[in-house]
Write a structure and sequence with these properties.
The protein contains 13 helices and 12 strands. It is an alpha/beta fold. It folds into 2 domains: 132 residues, 3-Layer(aba) Sandwich (Rossmann fold); 183 residues, Rossmann fold. It has a 7-stranded parallel beta sheet, sandwiched between helices. Strands 2-1-3-4-5 form a 5-stranded parallel beta sheet. Strand 1, helix 1 and strand 2 form a beta-alpha-beta unit. Helix 5 packs across helix 7. The chain binds glyoxylic acid.
Length: 328
């Protein structure tokens, strides 16, 4: 029987489905493995079901001679050394599509929370500081409706974010390396603009590009300097896409008005500068965190993994070059 390592706790029904076909080593304790533990557990595995926080690097791959597939339970896969896996003929898979709407919802939750100062108001009420029922100028925020939303990165999730802007009668600008077909721009009511134009004209700015070293600090101090002082910025993409120190400084100096952040450089460690700021809403990497979506992600990952271990091409292969190696 083939052996599968499940690096973190997943739903019982997912483990049960795996056990129908494979011998399963499940990290039910849910304490992330150290790099040494990861290499040790991977050593016997034919397949790994991993989360975005599990580093599957050259050392892990080298320790696992029987490994055929790393199936990430995520759309992102920057935790996996894909080039090293490809060289070894190991398939890497992800779970695109199933989390787009849920991540777009969270992006909007942060946009609204930051714009309307929800977390600040909640903390104020809980501290018992609400003494006068109505104060004309208290907790004034920004209107989303009829404002301009700028989306940097217009893939599936970016488009799901854009779609939601229609209900708020927003003007939608986007910047992407490649323009969408005209029919999609029309459907989403979105206009392609140069990056600097988007930064300067948007009231709300969302970044949604996949992480790779090439886009490390894709948003940095000079970008915040180009935004409106009233701008609200949201990062639900990936830690490292945004220079956290630069965002903290922009928020501290009121260079921009507010932000919502779900993903951080080096998470779960956090730049402590965030903690003293009232104009930022922080969530712990929960973009895809609804039960239905997390279950769909697990199911997609199991389908990918099973396909490889049963000798088929998985539906969501991120390194198709590996198939060339099979023929060589
Ligand atoms: C989550 O961060 C994912 O990439 O799916």
């Amino acid at each position: 029987m083939k052996r599968v390592l499940v690096t973190r706790q997943v739903f019982p029904e997912v483990v049960a489905r795996l056990r129908e076909r494979f011998e399963v080593d499940h990290n039910d304790a849910d304490v992330p493995y150290t790099p040494a533990q990861m290499a040790e557990r991977a050593a016997m595995a034919d397949g790994i079901l991993a989360t975005v926080m599990d580093k599957v690097d050259e050392d892990v791959l080298a320790a696992a001679p029987g490994l055929k597939v790393v199936s990430n339970i995520a759309v992102g896969y920057n935790n996996v050394d894909v080039a090293a896996a490809t060289k070894r003929g190991i398939r890497v898979t992800n779970t695109p599509g199933v989390l787009d709407d849920t991540t777009a919802d969270l992006t909007w939750a942060l946009l609204m929370a930051a714009a309307r100062r929800i977390a600040e108001g909640d903390a104020f009420v809980r501290r018992g500081e609400w003494k006068i029922a109505f104060t004309m100028s208290a907790f004034l925020g920004a209107d989303l409706h009829h404002a301009t939303l700028g989306i940097l990165g217009m893939g599936r999730i970016g488009q799901a974010i854009a779609k939601r802007a229609t209900g708020f009668d927003m003007r939608v600008l986007y910047h992407n390396r490649s323009r969408l077909p005209e029919a999609d721009e029309k459907r989403l009511n979105a206009t392609w603009v140069e990056r600097d134009c988007l930064l300067a004209e948007s009231d709300f700015i969302v970044v949604m590009v996949p992480y790779s070293p090439a886009v490390h600090h894709f948003i940095k101090a000079e970008d915040f300097a180009k935004m409106k002082p009233t701008a609200v910025f949201v990062n639900t993409a990936r830690g490292g896409i945004v220079d956290d120190a630069a965002l903290i400084e922009a928020l501290r100096a009121k260079r921009i008005a507010a932000a919502g952040v779900d993903v951080f450089e080096g998470e779960p460690a956090l730049n402590p500068g965030y903690l003293g700021l009232s104009n930022v809403v922080l969530t712990p990497h929960i973009g895809s965190a609804s039960r239905a979506t997390r279950l769909r992600m697990c199911e997609t990952a199991v389908t990918n993994l099973t396909a490889v271990l049963e000798g088929r091409t998985p539906p969501h292969l991120v390194n198709p070059q590996v198939l060339q190696g099979d023929k060589a």
